Amino acid sequence: MILEYKWRIFAVTSLANMTSAFALNSLNLAMPIMAAEFGVSMGAISWLSLVYSFIPSCVLLIFGRLADLYGYKRQFISGFIVFGVASLLLPLLAQSLQSLIFFRCFQALGYGMMISITQAMCNRSFPPEERGKALGINSVSVSVGLAIGPTIGGMLMTHFSWRSIFYFNIPFCILGIIMSIIVLKKDEPYAGESRRMDWLGSFFFALFIGFLAVAINFSADWGLFSLRFIGCLGVSVAALSLFIFRESRVDMPLMELGFFRSRVFTLANIACIFSYIIQQMTTFLIPFFLMDILLISKSDTGLVMLATPLSMMLLSPVGGRMADLYGSRRPALTGLGLIALGCVLMSLLTLETGLIYIVMILLCYGVGNSLSVAAINTAIYSTVPREHSGVVSGMVATMRNLGQGLGVAFGGAIMALRQSYYSSAGLAPANRVYLLAQRDVFYFGLGIVTVAIFCVLMIPFKKKN
């Protein structure tokens, strides 16, 4: 039996999500070996991860708009090609750190081309009454890629070399190209749609996101009051001001600023980025607690951390389906409430905390994210005309990247500041200082979730019949 077109779309977008997410996490275990081989520091080799986050953040909205103007099929195929070629050339031709970063940048461009429109393609292919389920199931593939990345990456490192991690992507890119050619229909231009891209506005937006991302990622190293941090924030704010000025006066803007007049659109986006801040803050901090405080091995820590992505894999479709049946408010509030509970429980961690307790909290986070993310995204798409699905998909992906970056930045900065405070207060031993600082981080997380809950309560969701 031939699958319906909407489920074929789901299959090809899921492949793109899984491939790009795998490339994000699979390289983590190889970083020390690559640093030794090329004779560079861990800080220098970490740029392979940073550019894979920076570049998509800058271009996701732009590629989303390009897809709206010139077609989804061509861009999706091009994304697989760029990603696959970069995955082939990087291990073959990279002879220095600079060349590694160069090819990784192209891999990140391919990632941005694909991921900017995966949700938009599902949104356009599924009817409104199934939109939440589609977006929820689509997010499962991201969780799968993130979950299997370290495991498969470690296996490839054990039996081959770090180069095999990049080669591993190539068959999936070839499959993605073939599936895209066969499955995706030719895009039909919308009546009256002018194919004119606002490149100047795109430049201002990329400048805004790029300098903001740099400031976020290096805030812990530079310090919040350093000249470099303040300078990056200043350039980012200036670029945002120029972007808004430009978009409010151009005939065919990169993004319709009028979308933000909608309470649903604006408040749902705020709730979205806040939920990702908490998600990444937890993912960033818990491994340090497990390995440095409880003295658990890296392998056991990896198994414990699987609790969140595995629960998201299982329950993300449930959150989307609940949004279809009951509206977005109920699953969003339930999910955010579980995340808030997770923050409270995390603040109570001690030296005697058992692994079962931590796994249960991580499951709480996973279930909470499963219910809230799909529901909030459904609310965002419900306010936007179909012909703007691409740019909104790019913006949602940008919110995810920024939220994840902010989660790491806030977690690291608050931990450093509070540890310094408690140490200067004469508290000892170091483990106690660490636990108190970590408690304060999750108090901050509880405040962030509370704001997200308030945003959801303020959204005028319509009740489902």
Characterise this structure.
The chain has 465 residues and is mostly helical. The protein has three domains: 1-185, Up-down Bundle (Growth Hormone, Chain: A), CATH 1.20.1250.20; 198-253; 262-465, Growth Hormone, Chain: A (Up-down Bundle). Helices cover 79% and strands 0% of the residues. The chain contains 19 helices and no strands. Helix 8 runs antiparallel to helix 15 (307-326). The mean pLDDT is 81.
What does the secondary structure layout of this molecule look like, with pairings?
Elements: H1 5-25, H2 31-38, H3 42-45, H4 47-70, H5 72-93, H6 97-115, H7 118-125, H8 131-159, H9 163-167, H10 169-183, H11 199-222, H12 227-247, H13 263-293, H14 298-305, H15 307-326, H16 329-346, H17 355-381, H18 389-424, H19 430-458
Helix pairs in contact: 1-7, 1-8, 1-10, 4-5, 4-6, 4-11, 4-18, 5-6, 5-10, 7-8, 7-18, 8-15, 8-17, 11-12, 11-18, 13-14, 13-17, 13-18, 13-19, 15-16, 15-17, 16-17, 16-19, 18-19
- Class by alpha and beta content: mainly alpha
Q: How far is the N terminus from the C terminus?
A: 33 Å
CATH architecture of the largest domain: Up-down Bundle
Instruction: Tell me the domain tally.
Output: 3
- Mean pLDDT comes to 81
Number of helices: 19
Number of strands: 0
Write the CATH fold name of the largest domain.
Answer: Growth Hormone, Chain: A
Q: Give the CATH superfamily of the largest domain.
A: MFS general substrate transporter like domains
Descriptors:
single chain, 465 residues, mainly alpha, Growth Hormone, Chain: A, 19 helices, 79% helix, globular
